[in-house]
Amino acid sequence: MSSNTVAIRVGRLMEISVQEGFRSVEDVEQQRARITAALDTIPKDQLVVIAADWRQCQLMSQPAANALGLMIGDFNARIERSAILGSPSSPAAVLQFLRVVRESRHPARRVYEERAPILSWLGECLTDAEGARLIEFILPARDSGC
Asked: 3.40.1050.10, 3.40.50.970, 3.40.710.10, 3.30.750.24: which CATH number matches 4-138?
């Protein structure tokens, strides 16, 4: 079974892969713990740039969506930019992601349905090494899709 993962592999680029989604508030709290653990690996005064692949994430229950919006908002002070990649084949889920992001109240969080804009927007504030890792994360060799 796939899982939701959070990792900082290069610099301050946080990679979030949401394969299982968030079916419950407990799922959201588990994600909070993963994000907290990743943030603990870098200096407290360093902001992160998040690239999140939510293409497998389906429509969430209302309690899970509400909890997710609050949870990601709790990390606002540690975020420079954040981009979520949603699936164009799941328009209802993407609309829900947009609402969750809006409710997090961070002006530098965005939702995209294509990869190129993520590479461009996040790439503006990344080092060369972080940018190269972003490309590996967003455009994995095994995946030649959109």
From this structure: 3.30.750.24
- Is the whole model's pTM more than 0.85, yes or no? yes
The C-alpha atoms of residue 8 and residue 48 are separated, in whole angstroms, by 9
Structure tokens at 44: 């407290």
Task: Identify the sign of the CA torsion 76, 37, 20, 131.
Answer: positive
User: What is the domain partition of the chain in residue ranges?
Assistant: 4-138
As a dihedral over the C-alpha atoms of residue 94, residue 61, residue 5, residue 139, rounded to 10 degrees, the angle is -20
Place of tokens 């504030």: 125
Closest CA to 84 of 4, 2, 1: 4
Burial of 68 (0-12, 13-18, 19+ CB in 10 A): buried
Kindly report, residue by residue over 112-133, the tens digit of the pLDDT: 999 999 999 999 999 999 999 9
Q: What are phi and psi of 34, to 5 degrees?
A: -65, -45
